[in-house]
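Our platform keeps sequence and structure together, in a single record for each protein. Such a record has a labelled line for the sequence and another for the backbone structure tokens. This encoding replaces a full spatial description with a residue-level series of whole-number codes. Below, we set out a record of this kind in full and without editing:
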Amino acid sequence: MPLERTLSAGYMTNWAARLFAVAIERRLKARGLSSAHLPVFFALADGAARTQKDLAAAAAVEQPTMAATLARMERDGLIRRAPDPADGRSSLVSLTETALADVDAVRRATDEVNALALADLAPSERDIFLSLLEKVVTALAADAPEKPPRAARRKATASTADGSP
């Protein structure tokens, strides 16, 4: 039996996600923004300040990935860091005035791409689609194993590579 991509939920979801990213990227590029910034914008658009750890969890990415995203955004004047009064070892991240001024543009870009993607669906189909997609995400999130810290994974990988237990 041949593989049929249109019958694979994983393949079709991944393909749609890539197309969403490309479409949003085109709309944000003129403002000097990227789809990689979206998780930070979604988390901080209300003017809140959050730790890098909280942002990584909200975006479902590892802390080094979030650290790199935040470093680029800080370089571009989109975020600022302030000492966390509750934890002197960490900082609170918030959007700068420049980035806050871009929130409406980010909202328009995501709304426009979502409208484009769902244009051929009736309103009831949109509701069903989003409800079903939420169920899929919930099921996959429940199946996702807790990742060990990066150092432990590196150590485990090194042990496996050299044949030791």
Observations:
- The longest strand covers residues 87-95.
- The longest helix spans residues 97-118.
- The helical segments are 9-29, 38-44, 52-59, 63-75, 97-118, 123-143, 150-161.
